[in-house]
Amino acid sequence: QVVFALNQTLLQQESLRAGSFQIPYTTEDLIKHYNCGDLSSIIFNHDTSQVPNFINATLPAHERMTAQEIDRYFRQELIYKRNQRMGRRVKDLLEEYPDKSFFFAFGAGHFMGNNTVIDVLRREGYEVEHTPAGQAI
């Protein structure tokens, strides 16, 4: 699986450099959707851009199954568990110091797709609101 993942990542990078493959969104798209509080929009319907997309319809069936297994593993280990840990840390701080004010800053990847830090906090009963760019806190 490691060799497969490495080969697919290298092939994807080579395609990007050759211009035969393009990322479906730009940095400007990411900033715009982040500012609008809309990171779950259609351009981010794949749980996160931080996980390479190995699943490709042109792969043979056995390789497509390997790609799906790797995708599930990355999502679980690199995204969902990390967001769960971060959400628990925020919750623990809020509970330990109820009279204090906090400001938490996370990278955009923590807000995309499912099982985000916000999802974790909402499941714990917290109300989380998006503050648009330029709005006073």
From TrEMBL:
This is Metalloprotease TIKI. It comes from the Eukaryota. The gene is Trabd2b_2. Pfam families: TraB_PrgY_gumN (PF01963). One of its GO terms (cellular component) is plasma membrane. Its EC number is 3.4.-.-. The keyword Glycoprotein applies. The lineage of its organism: Eukaryota, Metazoa, Chordata, Craniata, Vertebrata. Keywords: Cell membrane, Glycoprotein, Hydrolase, Membrane, Metal-binding, Metalloprotease, Protease, Signal, Transmembrane, Transmembrane helix, Wnt signaling pathway. GO terms for biological process: negative regulation of Wnt signaling pathway; proteolysis; Wnt signaling pathway. It is an enzyme of class 3 (hydrolase). InterPro entries: TIKI1/2-like, TraB/PrgY/GumN_fam. One of its GO terms (molecular function) is metalloendopeptidase activity. Its main location: membrane. Its cofactor is Co(2+); Mn(2+). Divalent metal cations. Mn(2+) or Co(2+). It is found in: Cell membrane; Membrane. Metalloprotease that acts as a negative regulator of the Wnt signaling pathway by mediating the cleavage of the N-terminal residues of a subset of Wnt proteins. Following cleavage, Wnt proteins become oxidized and form large disulfide-bond oligomers, leading to their inactivation. It is a single-pass type I membrane protein. Belongs to the TIKI family.
